[in-house]
Structure formats: C-alpha cells, structure tokens
Write a structure and sequence with these properties.
Layout (H helix, E strand, L loop, with lengths): L1 E3 L13 H7 L11 H8 L1 H11 L4 H22 L11 E5 L5 H14 L8 E4 L1 H4 L7 H12 L3 E5 L14 H14 L5 E6 L1 H10 L1 H6 L2 E5 L4 H14 L3 E2 L4 H12 L6 H23 L5 H5 E2 L1 H5 L6
Parallel strand pairs: 2-5, 2-6, 3-4, 4-5, 7-8
Antiparallel strand pairs: 1-3
The protein binds adenosine-5'-triphosphate and magnesium ion (MG).
Magnesium ion (MG) binds next to helix 5.
C-alpha cells in the first residue's frame, strides 16, 4: 500500500475550505448573486486542471470528464450557499485501461482537485491491492480492510486490479468480506472518501456483473485508451524534457522505431514502457560517456544518441 500526501494541506493538517463557513452561515437570499468566475478562481481548481492538461499527453475524454466533475462540485458549492441541499454527489469511480495508461496519475490529481473543491478533507491518495485488504486467515480481513479505509479517509482510496478481490471459484474467499466492508463505507461515508477501482476493462466488467452492489455504487466509469504512437512519442519527449535530456536529430527516427517495435511486443505497458525505455537509455548514455573517457560538455551530458536506444533488446 502506498500513500501520497495531499497537496493543499496546511501545516496543521486542516484543509483549506471556504465553503465550510458559508455552509454553516445564513443562506444567501434568493435574489443574491454569486460571481461564479470568482468562486472558480478562489477554489484554485484551475491550477490542478491546467496541470492535468500540461503534464499528461492525450487523454482528452478523461480530462473532459474531470472538468465536468469540477464544474458540478463548484456549482454545488454555490447552491449550498443559497441553502439548496442536493446531497453530496456520488463520486466513486472506475478507471479502466491497460497498464501504464495514466490511471494512477489521474487519480492523484483527482484527489487534489476534490480537496480544493472542498469535497474531501485531506486530498491524499492511498493506493491498495487485494493483498492490502484481504487476510490469509479467518478474522484477518476485516481489520486489514478497516485499517486501509482509516488511512484513506478524507482522501481517495485507489484499488488497483480491484477484480482480484472477488474469486468466483472460491465461495468462501475472504475477498468477499473486504467487498462487503467497502460497500458499506462507500455508501455511508461517501462524504469523506472517494473510492476509485482500477483495472482492465473486460475483467472489471465481469467483476461488476458478479457484484451488482459494487456496480451500482460507481457513479463514473472512465476509460483510459492505449496510447497511439504519436502520443507515446510525445510522452517520451515530455519525460526527457523534464529530466534534462533530449534526442540528437539522428536519434529521433530511432526512438520512433523503438516505440513501434516495443508496442508490438508482449508486456507492453504504454507510458510505463516509455519511462522504462528512457531509464535504460540514460544508463547506456552514462556508460557510453564514461567508456569514452573524454571531456564532456553540457550538450554531451544531455543528448541521447541512436546507440543509446539501438542497443536495446527490442532491436534484436
Ligand atoms: N498521458 C501521459 N502523459 C505523460 N506521462 C504519462 C501519461 N500517462 C502515464 N504517464 C506516465 O507513465 C507512468 C505510468 O503511469 P500511471 O502509473 O499513471 O499508469 P497506470 O495506468 O496507473 O498504470 P498501472 O496500471 O500499470 O498502474 C507514470 O510515470 C506517468 O507519469
Ligand atoms: Mg497505476
């Protein structure tokens, strides 16, 4: 289980939430007017949305949905100031897609966004898998699941490969117990916790078929498609750029060729494979420089050459 800190936290851990005071005070009179643009800029949601746009290549439908959710929460806050109580929208979600398509990255930003919009107290993300939730022996599962839930309260609980919680072939599997506890919390404490289930689409679909209770608690199904070659290339450039590397002009076609070949191979994991390719290119680059043993300049230290990719197994 991993935990990432919330972004908008104050030193003492209390969330920045201007809606709280407004919600407990007198409601605005019906004739009052609220400046939505100001509400929006006060929430600082846009900086999260802009970061989502800038730091993640592609994913247009995902970004659109996140923006729509942000708009809903913002309008909800303003409605609350008029004393219009619509109840908290259900925000439990399912992110489907292959490995490395950005599900975790988007979930981290989502947590931050929900926090800024006053939906969750802390805005951190706790990432868990079956092993974190389900015990090996009778009586172990409930405490494990509750411990994870406790850590996730006020934030987002991201359950990777959620379908492993359910084992159809084993009636007495402890996973069922974890699912029951999750269902209860998703219903009763949804004002303090957002659950995101993630995994491959087909397996997630059959998980929902076997667990209609879970399916009915998920408000948003968001699909993360595999990246197109151009997107993989753009992702690679973004990663290199951030890390202070660039491609020599003659490396560009080699890098594209690398991605095309890697994409066709088994265990290709989208952006994660791009990241790994760059890590290995860095390794070869460093060893190439040291082996040459000559003086280096900034250019040499930052430029990846064709052989930094060509020596990969992908080309053999
Ligand atoms: N659209 C994107 N633009 C730039 N970088 C991306 C994009 N999508 C993913 N990445 C990067 O790729 C890596 C893997 O992404 P992430 O962990 O979010 O994927 P995931 O869908 O959660 O994968 P997995 O299912 O394997 O956990 C991270 O380093 C992330 O920053
Ligand atoms: Mg992930």
């Amino acid at each position: 289980m991993t935990e990432r800190p919330g972004f908008g936290m104050r030193q003492n851990g209390s969330p920045v939430d201007s809606s709280q005071a407004a919600a407990t005070g007198e409601p605005l009179p019906p004739g009052a007017r609220v400046d939505l643009a100001k509400e929006r800029s006060d929430s600082q949601a846009d900086s999260v949305l802009d970061a989502l746009d800038a730091e993640l290549v592609g994913l247009a439908p995902v970004k659109t949905r996140i923006r729509e959710i942000a708009a809903l929460l913002l309008v909800d806050r303003v409605r609350a100031r008029f004393g219009i109580d619509s109840g908290r929208p259900n925000l439990h979600m399912c992110f489907t897609g292959s490995p490395g398509t950005g599900k975790t990255s988007v979930a981290v930003r989502l947590a931050e966004l929900l926090h800024r919009l006053g939906y969750i107290r802390r805005g951190h993300l706790v990432s868990a898998t079956r092993d974190d939730l389900v015990g090996q022996y009778v009586g172990h599962t409930a405490p494990k699941t509750k411990e994870v839930l406790k850590r996730a309260m006020g934030g987002v609980l991201f359950i990777d490969e959620a379908y492993y919680l359910y084992r159809a072939e084993n009636e007495r599997d402890y996973g069922q117990e974890a699912i029951e506890i999750l269902l209860q919390v998703m219903e009763n404490q949804r004002d303090d916790l957002v659950v995101v289930l993630a995994g491959y689409k087909d397996r997630m679909d059959s998980f929902f078929t076997s667990n209609p209770g879970m399916s009915s608690r998920i408000a948003h199904h968001i699909d993360f498609p595999d990246y197109e070659p151009d997107e993989l290339e753009a992702i690679g450039r973004l990663m290199m750029d951030r890390e202070g590397y660039g491609l020599a002009p003659e490396t560009e076609p080699v890098f594209r060729d690398y991605l095309t070949r890697r994409r066709a191979q088994p265990r290709f994991a989208n952006a994660r494979s791009v990241r790994n390719a760059i890590e290995r290119a860095r390794l070869r680059h460093a060893n190439r420089l040291l082996a040459a043993g000559a003086e280096v300049d900034r250019e040499a230290l930052t430029t990846l050459h064709p052989e930094d990719f060509l020596n990969s197994r992908v080309f053999t």
